[in-house]
Design goal:
The chain has 15 helices and 10 strands. It has an 8-stranded parallel sheet. It has a two-stranded parallel sheet with strand order 6-7. Helix 3 links the parallel strand 2 and strand 3. Helix 2 packs across helix 3 and helix 4 packs across helix 7. The two termini are 16 Å apart.
């Protein structure tokens, strides 16, 4: 953690598909309990688009202290004016605990409309700034050096995804002190190596063909075979598995490397079953 860290989000949060796409009543109840357990932030994905604003509104309404964050709002699927109009209409106490993670997505998902990531994000941020969006309400899904520099210069900081403590150390060196660094960390509460890695590989499979992530893993020293096969080395680096104590060790490693906040994505293999996820979140809360 940096000396003058941006620790508004607390040390540990939850990143969850279930809290975006599950039953609404169950999501509201879960968010309330997560806050009571002491998690500092709740992150939900927004990369597929849809009515992410309403989903954020529901979680803001269910909580009183925890930050609600997006990981991420896809810049190809939401106009800047839609973001700023929605944000401006929020009550002040909701604005103050909202972190808008923005991401450039992937050419394989966007198609021919996809343009140069860095230039596109600069332009998007410029439009948001012109419309009055506060810089400290935003962070970027930054992996490479140049996107990390942009997150440092134009937003509160960075929200890297599918990375390692080694990446966290590199990101902190680029961000410098006082900027938010909030990596996502996939976790599997399973002590059997074969079962744990199988769950992790299932979660990893959708990302292995996306060049942004592959380039990030190459920079971390992984080979083409590691990436294509989802090797044990890659899986063990990207996912923390085992007992809650093992998960806590990985969180500590990110914090020691310079993270301010680590958001845990629990891989359960149970689809959108929020009850299964909640059981795991309770186990993790006891240690974190």
């Amino acid at each position: 953690m940096s000396a003058d860290a941006d620790n508004r989000l607390g040390r540990v949060g939850i990143w969850s598909l279930e809290l975006r796409f599950g039953d609404l009543a169950a999501r509201i109840a879960a968010a309330t309990e997560l806050e009571e357990m002491g998690y500092g932030a709740i992150w939900i994905p927004g990369g597929v688009g849809g009515d992410v604003f309403s989903d954020v509104d529901a979680l803001l309404g269910a909580t009183k202290r925890a930050f609600i964050a997006t990981g991420i709002i896809n810049v190809w699927k939401h106009e800047p004016a839609d973001i700023t109009t929605w944000f401006a209409a929020l009550p002040a106490d909701h604005q103050s605990r909202l972190m808008l993670g923005l991401g450039i997505s992937h050419q394989a998902l966007i198609g021919d409309a996809y343009a140069k990531p860095l230039a596109t994000m600069r332009d998007y941020l410029g439009k948001l700034e012109a419309l009055g969006q506060p810089a400290d309400s935003m962070c970027l899904a930054a992996l490479g050096p140049k996107m990390l520099e942009l997150s440092r210069d134009r937003t509160a900081g960075a929200h890297p995804y599918l990375t390692t403590p080694e990446h966290t150390a590199t990101a902190r060196a680029i961000l410098g002190s006082g900027k938010l660094l909030a990596p996502e960390q996939g976790v599997v509460l399973e002590t059997d190596p074969a079962k744990a890695r199988a769950l992790a590989r299932e979660a990893l499979a959708g990302y292995q063909g996306l060049e942004n992530y592959c380039n990030s893993w190459r920079r971390l020293g992984f080979s083409e075979d590691d990436i294509a096969s989802g090797s044990d080395a890659l899986v063990d680096a990207l996912f923390a598995w085992g007992t809650p104590e093992k998960i806590a060790d990985r969180v500590d490693a990110h914090i020691a490397a310079g993270a301010d906040h680590v958001c845990l994505q629990l891989i359960t293999g149970a689809g959108m079953d929020i009850g299964v996820a909640m059981t795991g979140w309770r186990q993790l809360a006891a240690l974190l």
